[in-house]
Amino acid sequence: MQTFSFSIPQNVIFGKGSLRELPKAAKRLQKSRAFIISGPHLQKMGMVEECRDALRAAGIESEAFTQTEGNPGTGTVERAAESYKSSGADFIVALGGGSPLDVAKAAGILAVYGGKITEYEGAGKVPGPIVPIIAVPTTAGTGSEVTPFSVITDHDRSYKLSVSSSYLLPACAILDPELIVSVPKETAAACGVDAMVHALEAYISLASSPYSDLFAQKALQLIGKSIRTYVSDRKRETEAMMLGSLFAGIAFSHARLGNVHAMSHPVSACFNVPHGVANAILLPAVVEYNAPTDQGKYYEIYRCIESRPIPEEKFYPCMLTQALRLLNAQLGIPRSLRETGVRTENFEAMAEDAMKSGNIAVNPRKTTKADVIELYNKAF
Fold first, then answer.
1. Which DSSP state fits 158?
2. What is the DSSP string of 210-236?
């Protein structure tokens, strides 16, 4: 068994109605003025104002930045950071899916240390603590509330850059399953599969450990049994999906991911395909590619996602690939990259970008640029 390490530095509040704990969480941080980072959809739904009302009732004033978009860009981060600095706030509430949480982390860096977010690309570039963040996810998917990563699109390069630092971990995460009831069906499917991919890739990663495996396995169990029901009726299985997303986030924070995520970021950067959709489409091809390295974990994954699994002695790794394709179809995920508007002439550049990802290094099967191009073609 290889040497491994882990830490659990955050406060996590989980349960229906736990959004009411937001003012208490702020006061435990000894903060007095909030800056809410969210998106236009949540503003229209009234969730931003709900947060502001809860804070105001506890004597905490706030301002809000609600201009985050899917696959947020560097310009959005810079605007959010400037708005934070002019607001007089002393902490950030990140309300939404992965995009607002990514923007909050990146803006929290620039508000303290200045510069451009591109200067912090990679691991270990953040010099110290950033603006304290309370993360309030409204999707069951990214796990960003418990991860040390921020992923931002650099449109000048058509490239998704990643910033990695333990300083990016939110000080507190509030997970209220009631907040994911109103998620649109397509978003619920894409985010749910994203969380499942987090768990799956962390589980088979070369950097996995007994610690990360515990969270990955539990996440796969929770999501596998719940995702179909949740996507068809977002009032059901909300607790299982949100908890599964949380556990998957913890798993990949310690084990990293693999080829799916390395390859999906260029798809989103070049063609603005939603991150979860790109992951879902790429997943069967990558799982098939990694099959020769399987040492029993494929069957464990298969048992989690297949509603009527067969006995292990009758299992073949190709059955997992088939089960994943069927799951995508059941959830309404597009069958191929072609259906999302991706073009084959971009595969060479996309593969070049994918190879820059640290996730390639921990994929269970060694991967070359030519392999990535072939995988894009299979998913196409």
1. T
2. HHHHHHHHHHHHHHHHHHHHHHH-TTS
